[in-house]
């Protein structure tokens, strides 16, 4: 049993080797119909089973080199060769494939030497061929036997290679429970640690003290506790009197960060370590008792009226066995399964439906169920489509039933209203981004095994159209978005949500708009078949308008395409479990499609100074800086202010000069006709026809 660190991947792999040589030859005019190759491992099957069961991921390489020796006898024959895994079960799939799929890796990737077969070796060539790949379904590992057939013909030869079993990760690493009151506890069966005890766990808390765990006997006991904000204690009594080991930390341990505790005891000594602090060791007495005799249940948390631990404990292992804290916490008051860790504070940064995953020293975002990529699931996954290029995503992949299809891909696993037995969709969510300068075209099309379909089109005018056909009506239900030209080369985002008869459409950042299917229309999307991007290549009858828009095809960029739980572009550009369901015509070149759309909520034509007819518009008004960076409205207002300031300055200069010129004189500008005027202002206005409103705003007398 070998452990090693793969620095290139920064992961620790547990590797178990066997005695079968690589490239073991089989056949060559063998008289035996079947050749059985036995693999003997460096660990027992129970030990390997424990490793694979607790690991997050396992793999085992397997290879079949052949010359006139068929492998799985695809497409429809009985396999000539198979392998035996855990519990002596036979398996008829090969490396790079999966359970229930009688194919090799080339059959999944559709690149076999002869496309009529699903394995290279099944073509029965006289030249050497090879089928290789990783077996990754860990519940079937390890490979214990390989049974090889079709090597009894003249000229038939085969060579078998099976790699070691490699596993990484620990499924129990995040098995955790949160203790929410000081009297909360979990109980387990009595700890069997008579002569040796090895206890390890992680904790985090903001409390200054509390008991981690305790198990009692008549006089014997074993106990781990947080004695203070800087002290962890390991105490026990095997009949010679209580012994206590304390580790003191220079830093606070109640900082709500993860800390590791490892306590060991055997007949010679006991030790305690916290994080990377120095190991504290206490030798056992030379005489006296050595066996730890316990009879009570093991308590994790509060016990015997003591103040229990407040916070979170995870990955609790006692003598190599991980205690299932989460499962016990589900049925225990005052204790909650799991931990609220970094994801509580930072989970919001996992965008676009990404799932926050707790890590020992931080967190990560799982983007596998989204159409995005990157550390925070915000990086667009998109591609540029040349004319005539298309992508098809088959909802129903070989080896999966329609029931599996619905439950695993088309339907959200969190949706309680839809069950896998429906095989029909009462609701769906579709979102994507696109940019193009050519119209008409088909952006996206979802076909079915019936006449139902959903299409998103760009009409010859450049306007967007969503077309639903769910049955019950003679013509499809169309949603036309006529107020904008979508074929303007700018990125646009489309979000469509349907729940029964109700449809909500959101285009770019404009407010959502609601629509409703006709009362005569069915509300179920029956038996979805495939999703097409760029062009529709489907057998059977196709809507006439869609057929017209289908030539020559979409030219431009598509990104972040997601239909319910399916991200077809991401499946094509990133290796995922769904990659085998994607077929591409042409070369798919990855692109971010110009990032997000720049539109803002629309203004009316009367108030929009940049309003343009959609036919002549070659850029959208986005409220951003234009030209040399000065907004036109701002420029007009600034000009008016500048003129006013200039006028005021000129007036002040004139007044100052006038005041100094007549210094010491009481002077009034009394106009002629003042006697008959109602006021002095009226006299001035009557006398001076060129009088401006400025004087009316600043009528004054000066006394110098």
Could you name the key traits of this structure?
45 strands; 704 residues; disordered C terminus; Jelly Rolls; 8-stranded antiparallel sheet; 3 domains; 33% strand; 10 helices; 7-stranded antiparallel sheet; mainly beta
What features would you describe in this structure?
With 704 residues, the chain is mainly beta. Helices cover 13% and strands 33% of the residues. The chain has three domains: 166 residues, Jelly Rolls, CATH 2.60.120; 166 residues, Sandwich (Jelly Rolls); 183 residues, Jelly Rolls (Sandwich), CATH 2.60.120.200. It contains ten helices and 45 strands. The strands form nine sheets. Strands 12, 14, 19, 20, 21, 23, 24 and 25 form an eight-stranded antiparallel β-sheet that branches. Strands 1, 2, 3, 5, 8, 10 and 11 form a seven-stranded antiparallel β-sheet that branches. A seven-stranded antiparallel β-sheet has the order 40-39-38-33-43-30-45. A hairpin with a 2-residue loop joins β26 and β27. The N terminus and C terminus are likely disordered.
Would you spell out the secondary-structure blueprint of this structure?
Blueprint: E1 2-6, E2 11-16, E3 24-27, E4 35-38, H1 45-54, E5 57-67, E6 82-84, E7 90-91, H2 105-109, E8 129-135, E9 145-148, E10 157-162, E11 165-168, E12 176-179, E13 185-188, E14 197-204, E15 210-216, E16 221-228, E17 231-237, E18 243-248, E19 259-265, E20 269-274, E21 280-283, E22 298-301, E23 311-318, E24 321-322, H3 325-329, E25 335-337, H4 342-346, E26 355-359, E27 362-366, E28 372-373, E29 379-380, E30 382-385, E31 390-394, H5 402-410, E32 424-425, E33 427-436, E34 441-448, E35 453-458, E36 464-469, E37 477-481, E38 492-499, E39 502-507, E40 513-516, E41 525-526, E42 528-533, H6 544-549, E43 556-563, H7 568-573, E44 582-585, E45 589-590, H8 632-661, H9 680-687, H10 693-697
Antiparallel strand pairs: 1-2, 2-11, 3-10, 4-9, 5-8, 5-10, 5-11, 6-7, 6-9, 12-23, 12-25, 13-22, 14-19, 14-23, 15-16, 15-22, 16-17, 17-18, 19-20, 20-21, 23-24, 26-27, 28-29, 30-43, 30-45, 31-42, 31-44, 32-41, 33-38, 33-43, 34-35, 34-42, 35-36, 36-37, 38-39, 39-40
